[in-house]
Amino acid sequence: MNLIQAIILGLVQGLTEFLPVSSSGHLVLFEKFLGLGASNLRFEVALHLATLLAVCFAFRRRIGKLIKAVFTGRIRRVKGKWQFSDDNLRLALLLILATIPAAVIGILFDDFIEQAFNSPITVSLALLLTGAILFGTGKVAKRQEKITWKHSLIIGFSQALAILPGISRSGATISAGIYSGADQEKSAEFSFLLSIPVILGAGLLEFKDVLKTGLPQGELTAIILGGLAAALSGYLAINILLKIIRNSKLQYFAYYCWAAGLISLAWLLLK
Question: How far apart are alpha carbons 27 and 39 in whole angstroms?
Fold first, then answer.
């Protein structure tokens, strides 16, 4: 991998990690189009950590409130209902709940998921499915419901589905929130915050394997440049998507996913 390829892949990772178009799917396809061999695990870890920094910086105030609420908030049961002294504590617990399905499915079906990453055709088909999921959000009436236990579980299972390359994590989780009746902006914020344990977990699992192989001489520059590109483009993507969701235009990403899926599928079948 040369430096230009590293920057391109960094930009692709950063933009597609948070825009609803599937980062894993785009990386698989771009590596194929750039003529790269097997995925570079060390480089992938760097990109994961870079996008983690992007989302943590974008939501640094909310994250600070969540951490504070975990240590200072209180829960009590009044007339058969749970009440929270700080709504950020409730949100923190909902994020933990929503993280569980993806963690369980990722562990149980690790081999199947790995095979899917080695199939660009599967990725192309999954992009078409992502397009259908996004397109449907434009038909759902706007609601103002805050995230509840019900929404959290539905979003959590949709995130588990998005482990497959080509299914957008942000697209699936935000759409799940909208379909289940949650407010669009609250669904988007929940999705971004939910990405933190997922990205961190994936990065730590991969980092364990990196320790076994070490870092070859000359690879550090590519990792730094790719990571910087991923962090900057990731932060930009978060702000772009939040603006798009405020204008209720999430469904327009469906056309991109359909185009990307069809073009890549045609290229793979005809080459």
Answer: 9
When divided into structural domains, the chain yields a total of 1
Say which residues have a Cβ less than 8 Å from residue 28's Cβ, sequence separation at least 6.
Answer: 117, 120, 123, 165, 166
Residue 142 structural domain: 3-270
Q: What is the tens place of the pLDDT at every residue in 131-181?
A: 999 999 988 877 777 899 999 999 999 999 888 888 899 999 999 999 999
For the entire predicted model, the pTM comes to 0.87
